[in-house]
Write a structure and sequence with these properties.
The protein is α+β, with helices and mostly antiparallel strands. It contains five helices and eleven strands, in the order H-H-E-E-E-E-E-E-E-E-E-H-E-E-H-H. 22% of the residues are buried.
Amino acid sequence: MLARQALLTGILAAMAPLISPANALAQSPSQLPTIAPNLARTEGVDTVSGIAYTRLYVSAADVPPSATLDLTRPTLTAQCTKRPNGKTFFELFVNFGGVTDIAFHPPWTPADGGLFPPRTPKVTMTMEFLGYTRVKPLKRQWERVLQPDGQYRYNPPGGGSSNLDDVSYFFRYLRALPTLRLSVQTQSASFLTTALMEQLHKEPLCTSAGL
């Protein structure tokens, strides 16, 4: 009996380094350690799809900087991914509070069931870039993703999208006007993006995506 218990303990110890950091964090998801004021980071490789990802989280501008990021507050998430075929992608997500799920959710594939991807609700979101000068607010289409509930993703150009610009197009605004305010219906949140922009240029997956 003791020998069997010792063997089990050894197996669990050997598996510990293989546990995904994102999965470990997801078990206590309301706080994330910050790497800069109001900026946190996770990375990993999805075991099912084989997609490598880096995710950067920015808390709302009205949240005082601290050693941890409070995921119960509005959060802007920048996600850089690399698929097994070498293709890289950049996506931008936002929620207006109460979304603590930081897990990476891979894109739909036919293996998930059905012939076509499930339809997602689309909303028109106002994007404002604030700084030393004022530019006209832009209205762009975002989609409410299936997981996690309450999260929106900038809808990239293509079939099923009314947007003509890729989300990286707006970086030219953020370099000069570093506060991004996003509003939809009665919800609104502002994010300071200077630390995010600096970190994106340090991330290999993000630079591979052309950022």
